[in-house]
Amino acid sequence: MHNFSTDQPNRHQRYIVIGIATAVIYLGGISVFGPVLGLSMGVVSSALYFGFTRYLWKWEWLHDKGLVAVPNLNGTWEGHLYTSVDADLIPDEQIVDNGRQIEGLTKQETSIEINQTWDKIRVSLDGPESPSHSRAATILVKEKAWPTLSYNYWNDGSTTNEELDPHYGTAILEYDEREDKLEGKYYNRPDQRGTHGILELYRVN
Length: 205
Hints:
The chain is an alpha+beta fold. It has helices spanning 13-33, 41-54, 60-64, and strands spanning 2-6, 75-83, 106-116, 120-126, 131-140, 148-155, 167-176, 181-188, 196-203. Strands 1, 2, 3, 4, 5, 6, 7, 8 and 9 form a nine-stranded mixed sheet that branches. α1 (13-33) crosses α2 (41-54). The two termini are 19 Å apart.
């Protein structure tokens, strides 16, 4: 996983709170139990930091109270991508003909896996012909009606399609909490791939 940036206000103050809590727990423990062999402020601080960044930030109570605005996007998301690649260049078995269609784009099945903590994230897309993995990301929670996940990715290219070379790209996805859906556009670098499209994904677990 890699770090991600966000516009959530006072995000870094959480680390100050962890530091204060560390001091209170450490000094309180000494006053009650006396010096404990092997216990240090570093150990307490690390435990609190690990607990918050991995688990506590996901608590719905913290989100309901507005203490954490960054959405929890962990999980497997399945749905479709609509690509600008010419349909004649795509194998028939990879094309989805039913359901929603977008003019000028070809519909295919896809899925992504998101692993996220309080300050790190990794977005892995399992494309019809090649996988991609995020390299940098931003989660915005203030500018629009829905939180927005933007990330830059590296696509490994295809071992079966000689025209699908490794390339960089960018995806900008809005999160609809009511439908638990991610939807938005993606773009591949013009000098490497030059294609674009739309992603529409729903969380399945």
